[in-house]
Amino acid sequence: MTAATALGSLCDNRYARRVSVRLTAAERRQQLLSVAVSVFAERGFHATSMNDVAEAAGVTKPVLYQHFTSKRQLFLELLDDVGARMIDAVTRAVTEGSSRRERVERGFRAYVGFVDRDRVAFSLLFGGGLGNDEDFAEAVHRVEQSVVDATAALLESEGSDDHRRLLARALVSMAEGTCRHWLRDPGDVDADQLASELADLVWCGLRGEVPDGDDEREPGPGTSNGNGSGGGAVDGGGPSRPQDPTATTVA
User: Fold this and answer.
1) Contact, 112 vs 198, CB < 8 A?
2) What distance lies between CA 157 and its chain's CA centroid?
3) DSSP codes of every residue in 34-73
4) Which of 78, 151, 221, 233 can pair with 168 through a Cys bridge, CB separation 3.0 to 4.6 Å?
């Protein structure tokens, strides 16, 4: 092989690696967003350049600028995209549930499943490092508010709309904070177990009940201890606790 042939072959190989599969405009835009998540998560917003994103995506900078006019626009759209994918996953899962209990279970499984699959995206969105930038903080707030709105629509309560939204905010904050901690220190808890335990906790709180098959608990103050003392019984044949008529339920 001559030197010229070797050089030509090397250039061809580099060009082949550089050129990616031809995509539609929408597909290319989504690919760039997906690649940008990993690049920004690894380097941070300020340390990342548009050239870094373009190189990681296998495109030239002009191609990247055809879709995003600036690094800030790219990052803001990235935050919105991550939020929209998470909300879509949870909403679709909940609407497929046939009962209130199943919708609660499906919702948490979808939320935790998204976190488990897209750990980098979740951490970038909710990792807490965006609060110093007003635009980025507002983008995160929009995502959180959309999740709260979707959750509030599932709640039935004797209270006002503001009351439902407050409860929904508490549920979303619980899921978000728990998942952030779980990503840092998962211990021996996997995603399925975490989702199941969160769903059980929320269901008990919203319905005033314990999960099926878990209604035997140690007697506490005011409960029957099996010899007739105390108030209403949890088990042991005594009267069951009446359902609070003002309790919040899940639609």
Assistant:
1) yes
2) 25
3) HHHHHHHHHH-TTT--HHHHHHHHTS-HHHHHHH-SSHHH
4) 151
Q: 224 near 212, Cβ under 8 Å?
A: no
pLDDT > 70: percent of the chain: 71
| Contact between 90 and 107 (Cβ < 8 Å) | yes
Question: What is the model's pLDDT at position 81?
Answer: 92
- Paired residues of 156 in beta bridges: 249
How many Cβ atoms sit within 10 Å of the Cβ of residue 92? Answer: 11
Domains of the chain from N-terminus onward: 17-69 (1.10.10.60), 75-212 (1.10.357.10)
pLDDT at 12 over 60: no
What are φ and ψ of residue 32, in 5° steps? Answer: -65, -40
Mean pLDDT score, 97-119? 90
Q: Quote the pLDDT of residue 29.
A: 94
* Residue 155 tokens, joined: 């709640």
